UniProtKB/TrEMBL annotation:
Protein name, per record: Polysaccharide deacetylase family protein
Region feature Disordered, mapped onto this chain: 1-26
Species the sequence originates in: Caproicibacterium lactatifermentans
Membrane-crossing residue ranges in chain numbering: 34-54
InterPro entries the record matches: Glyco_hydro/deAcase_b/a-brl, NODB_dom, Polysacc_deacetylase_ArnD
Alphabetical UniProt keywords: Membrane, Transmembrane, Transmembrane helix
MF terms (GO), sorted A to Z: hydrolase activity, acting on carbon-nitrogen (but not peptide) bonds
Record's keyword annotation contains Transmembrane helix: yes
Amino acid sequence: MRCTTQKGSRVEKMSERKKVSAVERQKKRTRRHAAIVLICIVLVAALAGGTYGITRLLVHPKTGTAVSSSAVSKASTAKDSSTSASSAAAASSAQAFEVNKTGLTGYQALYPDLYAKTKVGQWKDAADKTVYLTFDDGPSDLTPQLLEVLKKNNVKAAFFITHQPEQQKDPNYDKYLKEIYDSGCTCAVHSACHNYRKIYASPEAYLSDFNNMYQILKKATNDHVAPFFRFPGGSNNPIMSTSTRKAIIQEMTRRGFFFYDWDVDSKDAQGADASGIYANSIRGMQEGGNIILMHNTSVKKATLSEVENIIQYGKQNGYTFKPLDGTLDPSMYGFSNQYFIPLLKGNPNFKLSTKHEARFASLLNNGTSVSGAGVSSAGN
Ligand SMILES: [Zn+2]
């Protein structure tokens, strides 16, 4: 009886120990799982934190692509994979824009916050059969339809924006800007008033107008304005005197902004009809052009009607469409390279592609009379 009782007691104790060890094992499993989950969270946070640190100044928050402030396309599509690669390259070299703000006088001292946010660094040449669609003078009531066409064809473009009197009257102006930005297309400064005589009267007048447009875009894009712009009429327009042209280019370069002209003109601004716009655009592409100039005002219905045909021609003939994102070497298209390139000598913020550095060696070497920062032409 006693023996049976002792045996029973041992069995109870063993059973109790089994229960305890089972509970312990369960607790250990729970702790292990919690530890694994914690490690995963820490790893993901560290990875995201590191990437964020590199790219936060360049990434379009809506699309996750580099913009050197704005531009670009979603990384989620096959067609855009090359853009993502170039964006990654841009992001990896992103550094703060270097500028010497001491001793500034005259117009150099105006708008003390009007500087590019990031250093562009080394530019790249366009890959073969790459096309950049650019639309000037928008947004307008045709913008939503244009964005639809671009979206349907999985193409992103660059918009060089204006804020002209008729646009100021449009209650949907801000909405259109937001739609451009949300679509992943580039928002870059063209001109607020687009009045040649007014903006090209002096560097001060140009800066005032540029700053007006920049501030509007800054608000619309949550401070993701492209560091590049386009001169109304192009950088070699006849309204801008040579001395004003040189001074404006010098001052904008000092502030970290550069400009894109174009090498394919659809001639929609000169009144080309739909078939002319199509023919001019595809002929330019066939001849090796990359940047196509088009417009997006309310009256450019013919342009709107041909965009899809131009994209389809390009895709069927092996062309890739990309949005300007600041990585493309602007000297490939610059009408005023003779003034722009000498400013790049010793400028820590910009570097021509290897090919163009060789091509423009003499212009670069002539850059001894000017420097990228702290130039002394204020008031000229
Ligand atoms: Zn224009």
